[in-house]
Design brief:
Layout: H1 16-22, E1 30-35, E2 38-43, H2 47-50, H3 65-71, H4 73-79
Antiparallel strand pairs: 1-2
């Protein structure tokens, strides 16, 4: 287990063995996710990393916003503000 210290400017350094094993690079964006009293630090994927992610996805029975609204007419009318 690697540890680090929070600086007086609230900065942290990621230990070298973790940076190398995860292939993190300087300038890479990371996201902090709070889970209860814990923090999870995950790399944010770039657009290039996400390219092709849904390749081969089954689009049969796809429903868009208009399709959902026509199946729920009571809720759709509640969303409209009176003039």
């Amino acid at each position: 287990m690697s540890t680090t210290t929070l600086s007086s400017k609230f900065q942290i350094s990621i230990p070298k063995e973790i940076r190398e094993s995860m292939k993190l690079k300087a300038g890479q964006k990371l996201a902090f996710i709070q889970i209860g009293k814990s923090i999870k630090l995950v790399p944010q994927p770039s657009i290039d990393d996400l390219f092709g992610l849904a390749k081969g996805a089954n689009t049969e029975n796809y429903r868009d916003r208009n399709d959902r609204d026509k199946h729920l007419p009571a809720i759709a009318t509640l969303k409209k503000k009176p003039k």
